[in-house]
Structure formats: structure tokens, C-alpha cells
Amino acid sequence: MSKIYETVIGLEVHVELATKTKIFCGCSTAFGGAPNTHTCPVCTGMPGSLPVLNRQVVEYAMAVGIATNCSITQYCKFDRKNYFYPDNPQNYQISQLYLPICRNGGVEIETAAGKKIIGIHEIHMEEDAGKLVHDEWEDVSIVDYNRSGVPLIEIVSEPDMRSAEEVIAYLEKLRMIIQYLGASDCKLNEGSMRADVNLSVREAGAKKFGTRTEMKNLNSFKAIARAIEGERARQIELLEAGKKIVQETRRWDDNKESSHAMRSKEDAQDYRYFPEPDLVPIVISDEWIAKVKANQPELRTEKLERYQREFDLPKYDAEIITGHKKFADLFEAATELCGKPKKVSNWIMVETMRLLKENNMDPEDIRFSPVNLAKLINLADSGSITNTVAKEVFELIFKDDIDPEKYVEEKGLKTVNDEGALRETVQKILAENPQSVEDYHNGKEKAIGFLVGQTMKAMKGKANPALVNQILKELL
């Protein structure tokens, strides 16, 4: 009988913070930009240049720590992590080893198996490295230092997760908290949220952890789930064959759906950490913590309750709307403008989510304004346009954020409420469809639906459906 194995997973999640400037200098943190244009002597590691700490980085780190139930280290400092790599210009990274800013927290996740607390060992601040670009054609690697010095927090979990499902639930919870705080946009595709997966397997019931491997290069939740399944299977196969698992860092290749070894795993002492001599320790007062706490925005749990109470939204709708900060912001702004919360919620949940799926986009990629959504809802609600026209116009709002009022006016899309014109069209439709008229008179109620459809078609979808129904019944 084959053995039953348990997977043990811990995560190191790197999050780029949403500051305008880097952690130790005044260079821009904007994503993109021509290579090596967001740089200066500090973030390119020039001799004699000195770092100056960005206060906003400390506040964002504290905000994330408070929201994830961590205790704040009121006397914390930076350390040098020494290693040589071409994208690391100083040959060291300024990080925190001995006294990280946040410790001993946790977040609650919910999966099919129920609720569970995932412990957070620590959150520390550090600077990001540059980016190596491999040019296969020229067979060289070139370095872009724009990302060097971009502020990061690293959230180190306890090894509390047991499946890919729990890992994704934990990451989604972290992403939601951080986005609600405004501390980062957490875009995995732009690298502003990155997760390294530490995974080991052990026989079910065993107390001792197995040998773990660390997996890097994971830039989507789907890739993370596949990498976990792939690495779990690889380790079990080795154990079943009586082989040893080597502690190492592995790189996941999502195209090949397999991983390969990068390097044997170093321990902390290999980095020769020592206190950063160019930065003074950070002393965090009770008042500073209280101020950051007081500035914390409304997080998802409070929003969820308020939407049901204040806007009378069903729980299901409120859960979907609050599931993404972008949805919540859009919902609140559009509702304030048109005063129709249920209608706003429907447009987000049905048409917006459909178009996001069709265009393979995330809610963060929404570009249209709440103003134009509110205008469209008012047009449809007042009967100025039909539902069919409203859906067509919304597609253009979604794509190019057009002004629906101007567009409807310019294209002559307003609902036809002219009874004379409608009566004429209905009479024509009845004359062309004697069979349907006969069916209706023989008690087949459905026949009227066909006649309404034909009339709407003849009016290019611009007729008032209620008026069409009324005239049809009268003439029949």
C-alpha cells in the first residue's frame, strides 16, 4: 500500500510599495520607462553615495503589519545582506534580518475545508534589485537599474499551508488587504507582487518537516498552483524511489510545466549579514503607531457589512463587489452619482465581469469612469435607451470610456416613444405574420413574444418595449 503524504508550504511574498520615490533616494518608482533612466548614484551603488530612508515606506510597512495582526517592532533597524549578482550594484542589499519591523501576525483564510489562520512570521523592509535582461540573439545579459532601490516589504509566512488552494486563498487575502490600504497595486504581471514557495512533503502524521525546496519565477496565481502540484509530485516520486531531496532553489518554467535547479540553498550566515552602518535605527513611538492606525481605510470586512446595511445589497452581491478594491471604488463613486446601488452592482457583476473575462483582464485594469457608468444607468432607467442599446453603449464605455449621453445623441439611439410611428410598424409586422396572429388568437401567448421581437428588429432595437407590447395587445 502506498504511503500518504502531507505537503507543507510556507511563502515569502515580496510586495513593491506604492511610493512615488525609491526607498533610499529620490528616483521615480514608476513601472516602465527607458532602461536606466530612473537612476542616480545612490540606487546604482556609486562609491561615496549615502542612503536616506523614505518615511512613507515605514508607514506602509506598519499599515500592512497592523492589518495583518502583527506586533510592530518599535526599535528596528536595517542590515546588509552581502551577495554578488550583476543586478545588485552595491554587492549587498539593504534589508532587515535581526529586528524586522513587524512580527508574529496572521490572516484568516477560507477554503472548501473551512476557515484557518495562516501565521505571519515577520514582515521586513528592503530594497529591490535591478533587472537582468537576457538577449538570446546577442548571447549577452544587460542590466536595467530602474527597479534597483524600489521599496519592498517581504511577508514571510509560517509553514502553515497544506495545499495549493490554501496558498491561493492566502495570497488573495494578502493582495486584497494591501490593495485596500493603497500600499501597492499588487500586479503580479508587473512584478509588484511576487511569491517564492517553500515546499516540503512528509508522511502523514509525521512531526518532523521534510527537506524543503524554494521555487522562484512565479508571476501568476495559476503558475503558483501548477508549481506547487508539480513540485509536490516531484518530491514524492524521489521519496518513493528511495532518493534524497536536495535543499535548493528551483526555477519554475510555466511553459514546460516543470522546474529545474538554480542553486543549492544558502543559509542566512552565507550572506554575512551585519548592521547597516549608513542608516540610523528607526524608533517608532506609540503616537506614530496610533496615527497609522487612525489613518487605516475601511477594509473589506467593514465594507461588506456596510453595503448590506446601507445599500440593501444581497450578501452575494456585496461579497463580489468588495472582493476587489477597484470594484468597490467604482461601485461607491457611481452610486453616489446616480443613487441606484442595485443597478450599479448589476452592471459591475454582469456586464463588467463578462467583458473582463472576454478580454482576459483583471479588475485593476478597468479604465472607464464611474461618471460614464452612472450616466448610462440613468439613460437606461429613464427609458431613454433600451437595454439592448445600453449593453452596446457599455461595451464602448468599457473600451474607450466614451460619454454615453453624447454618443446616444450623435448616433440617434434614443428610444422611439412616438406612438404613431410604432403603431405603423406594428401594423406592418401583423400583416407580414398572419400565422403568429392566428396562434395568438388560438391561445398561444408565446406568439406575442415573437411579434415584439420582429417589431424591435424593424425599429433597430430603439422602440420602447412596453409601448410595443401595449400597441400589439390593443391591435390583436
Any chance you could write out the topology, listing elements then pairs?
Blueprint: E1 5-16, H1 55-67, E2 71-72, E3 75-76, E4 79-82, E5 92-95, E6 102-111, E7 114-127, E8 131-135, E9 140-144, E10 151-157, H2 164-181, E11 193-203, E12 213-216, H3 221-240, E13 248-253, E14 258-264, E15 274-275, E16 282-283, H4 286-294, H5 300-310, H6 315-322, H7 325-338, H8 341-358, H9 370-381, H10 387-400, H11 404-410, H12 419-432, H13 434-441, H14 447-458, H15 465-475
Parallel strand pairs: 12-13
Antiparallel strand pairs: 1-10, 1-11, 2-6, 3-16, 4-5, 4-15, 6-7, 7-10, 8-9, 11-12, 13-14
Mean pLDDT: 87
Strand fraction equals 15-25%
Largest sheet: 9 strands, mixed
Assembly state of the chains shown: single chain
Query: Between the first and last Cα atoms, what is the distance in angstroms?
Result: 76 Å
C-alpha-based Rg, rounded: 29 Å
Which secondary-structure class do the elements indicate? alpha+beta
Shape: elongated
Please provide the count of β strands: 16
What are the low-pLDDT stretches, counting only 5+ consecutive residues below 50?
Answer: none
Strand order of the largest sheet: 2-6-7-10-1-11-12-13-14
The total tally of domains equals 3
Annotation field: number of helices: 15
Domain Asn/Gln amidotransferase: 329-476
EC number: 6.3.5.-
Enzyme class: ligase
Subunit structure: Heterotrimer of A, B and C subunits.
